[in-house]
Description:
Strand content: 5-15%
Helix content: 40-55%
Number of domains: 2
CATH topology of the largest domain: Rossmann fold
CATH class of the largest domain: Alpha Beta
Order of helices and strands: HHHEHEHEEHEHHEE
Amino acid sequence: MSAATEPAHLMALNGLAADQSLSLDERRLHEVEYWRQYGTWHCMVTCLAAAIAEIGGSDFWACVREALGRHWTGGDLPEVERIVCLCLGSLDEHASVLQLSLLILLSEKLGICHDRCLVFDPCHTDRDRSVLRHLGFAVMDSDAKAFTEVRCMTLFYMPHGDYNLTDDLVWANRRALHQVAVLGNDFGWVCDPHASDAADGGDDAGTRAPCAQRVLPFVEATELPGTPAAEAQG
């Protein structure tokens, strides 16, 4: 793999390993670290490619594509123009690499360029952010931009989003909910995981997500087969 095809953090280490202003011992230390991190990067890329191929050819992905098409057609929603991915998880975790592969497949399915896919997770390291930028994603320094009221149809992909995050999202976009779709936890669970009548909405007293509770009666949900806790909501 040439330097031009490597993430920025590897290019920086490679540059330090060749920096003649440093001592030989310092350059050797940087070279060792370069190859260590290169191995991690190569392993992640290999796993990501395998995950994209496996999921992309699976019955699960065929069902997801069908469900998304049914949701958008049935709800008469405008086409998605942007994806915001929150709570992706550390790229050191295999589960997060699988979630990343699904993000890539979603962007391809919806025709969204990677630079129109905003990504943020507070657990991401500098290396994680470097890898995501190398893949072409727009990596945010905080979630502040994610919670700015949307101005176009936006799919929020939140594989590990908790109820606080979902409630904050609803509040930030309370005047633009017609331009918001959420691929994440079911809104009934977000409001109250124990109440059997949570889907009825209404009184938000006692709910852990009052903003989501108020909009619950108006949510159009489509269950994604194979992922009982995940729904596409718009």
